[in-house]
Specification:
A hairpin with a 5-residue loop joins β2 (about 50-55) and β3. This protein has four helices and four strands. The protein is elongated. About 35% of the residues lie in helices and about 25% in strands.
Length: about 110
Amino acid sequence: MNVGKVMEARVGMLMDVALPEHRAELVIVTCHVVNHRNAVDRAMIHFADYKKKAFRTERANVFEMEIYCPRGDLTELVIQILSFGPMMQVLEPASVVGELKARLARQLEL
C-alpha cells in the first residue's frame, strides 16, 4: 500500500468483514518442477499471488510444489502452469490434470 501522498487520516468504526477470497475453498495443486534454467525460482515468483510450499525430492533437480488456489481461480492457474511447458508436471488433483490434458489435446488439434 502506497501511503506517500496521504494528507489526512481519521480513525473510524472497526469493520470486521471477511473478504470473499478468504472464504473461498482452497484446492491444493501438487506438481513437480524440474530445475532447468531456474524453473523453480521462476515458478516461485510466477505463482507469488498464491500460497505455496516447495520441497526438494529425492530425484536430482526436481522439486515438489504445492500451490493453494481458490477453486474460482483454477482456470487461470491451469493457463499459468501451461506456460512452463515440460518443466512442470501436475500430479494432483485429477480434475486439474484432466483440464491440462484437455487443453493440450485442443492445442494439438489446431
